Automatic annotation (TrEMBL):
Function: Catalyzes the reduction of fatty acyl-CoA to fatty alcohols.
Family named by the database record: Belongs to the fatty acyl-CoA reductase family.
Principal EC category: oxidoreductase
Gene: LOC112453398
Keyword list, A-Z: Lipid biosynthesis, Lipid metabolism, Membrane, NADP, Oxidoreductase, Transmembrane, Transmembrane helix
Gene Ontology terms: biological process: long-chain fatty-acyl-CoA metabolic process
Organism, as annotated: Temnothorax curvispinosus
Taxonomy, superkingdom: Eukaryota
Domain Fatty acyl-CoA reductase C-terminal positions: 180-258
Name of the protein described by the UniProt record: Fatty acyl-CoA reductase
One GO term describing the cellular component: peroxisome
Catalysed reaction, written as an equation: a long-chain fatty acyl-CoA + 2 NADPH + 2 H(+) = a long-chain primary fatty alcohol + 2 NADP(+) + CoA
GO molecular function, one term: alcohol-forming long-chain fatty acyl-CoA reductase activity
This enzyme's EC code(s): 1.2.1.84
Domain called Thioester reductase (TE): residue spans: 10-109
C-alpha cells in the first residue's frame, strides 16, 4: 500500500483513496485496519498481540499527571474549548466519551508483552486487548464537569469565556460554526491586521473545523467493546507488581484528573 501511495500521481491517488474508503469513515481508521491485517499475517510465524486503545488522553500519573506529547485530535479540541476558541462541537451529547490515559495504555502494552512471552506460541493466534474507559462519561457530563474547573483553573491565553454547545445535527452545527467561530475570527483578524499584527484566527478555525468534522463520526456514534481479556490479564498481575503495572483506574477521581 505504501508503494502504491508513492508511485501514483495525485489525481489517481485521490480516486483510489475514495474507493478504498468506501467502507470506512476516514484514512485513520483505514490505516489501523491495514496495520492489524499485517499483524494477522505475521501471527502464523510470530507471537502477536493487538492493543486497541480508545481515545488516548493525557497521563493519569506517569511521567507526571496531565502529560501528553501532542495537541492533535480530541486534545486540540479540548484545549480550544478551554481557551474559548471552540464554542460548538459536532457530537451527540448522550454518547459516551470513551477515553483512556496514555500511561494506562503503556502499562497495558507492557503487561500484554510480558504475558505473550510466557504463553506457548500458537500459529495464527493473535491476542486482542481492548483498552477502553473504565469510568465512562457522556459528552454532556464531561462538559458539565469541566465548566467549574475552567472557572477555578482558567487556561492560559484565553480569548473568550468558555461556553460549549454540542449537537449531532450537522446543519445546525454548520450554521453555529459560521456564527460563533468564523465571524468572530474574521472580526478579530481584522483588528489584528489593522494593528500591524499577523491575522491567525480564521486559518486556525478552518483547521479546527476539519478536525471537528473528522472526529464527528466518533462523537455522534457509540460502540461497546468487550473487556474480558483486560480483566483476565489484570488478574494475572502479582500483588508485588500491582502498583507499578496494573492498568486498573476504575476508582480514580474524574474531577481531579480533568483539573
Amino acid at each position: 500500500m505504501i508503494d502504491v501511495a508513492e508511485s501514483l500521481d495525485e489525481h489517481t491517488l485521490n480516486i483510489f483513496t475514495a474507493k478504498c474508503l468506501d467502507y470506512v469513515p476516514n484514512t485513520y481508521t483505514f490505516s489501523k485496519n491495514l496495520a492489524e491485517s499485517v499483524i494477522q499475517e505475521y501471527s502464523s510465524s510470530l507471537p502477536c498481540a493487538i492493543v486497541r486503545p480508545s481515545m488516548v488522553y493525557p497521563s493519569l500519573k506517569e511521567p507526571m499527571p496531565g502529560w501528553i506529547d501532542n495537541v492533535y485530535g480530541p486534545i486540540g479540541l479540548a484545549i480550544g474549548g478551554g481557551k474559548g476558541i471552540i464554542r460548538i462541537g459536532y457530537c451527540n451529547k448522550y454518547t459516551v466519551e470513551d477515553t483512556v490515559p496514555v500511561d494506562i495504555v503503556t502499562k497495558a502494552i507492557l503487561v500484554v508483552s510480558w504475558k505473550l512471552g510466557l504463553t506457548n506460541f500458537t500459529a495464527g493466534f493473535t491476542f486482542v486487548l481492548n483498552c477502553t474507559s473504565q469510568t465512562p462519561m457522556t459528552h454532556q457530563n464531561v462538559i458539565k464537569l469541566c465548566r467549574p474547573i475552567l472557572t477555578e483553573v482558567p487556561v492560559e491565553g484565553m480569548v473568550w469565556t468558555t461556553s460549549q454547545t454540542i449537537t449531532d445535527n450537522f446543519t445546525l452545527y454548520y450554521i453555529l460554526t459560521i456564527l460563533l467561530h468564523i465571524l468572530p475570527a474574521m472580526l478579530i483578524d481584522m483588528i489584528l491586521k489593522f494593528s500591524g499584527r499577523r491575522p491567525i484566527l480564521v486559518r486556525l478555525q478552518r483547521k479546527l473545523y476539519v478536525v471537528n468534522r473528522a472526529l464527528g463520526y466518533y462523537g455522534c456514534n457509540e460502540w461497546k467493546f468487550s473487556n474480558v481479556n483486560s480483566l483476565t490479564l489484570m488478574s494475572s498481575i502479582s500483588p508485588d507488581d500491582w502498583n507499578m503495572f496494573s492498568f486498573d483506574y476504575s476508582n480514580f477521581n474524574s474531577k481531579e484528573y480533568y483539573k
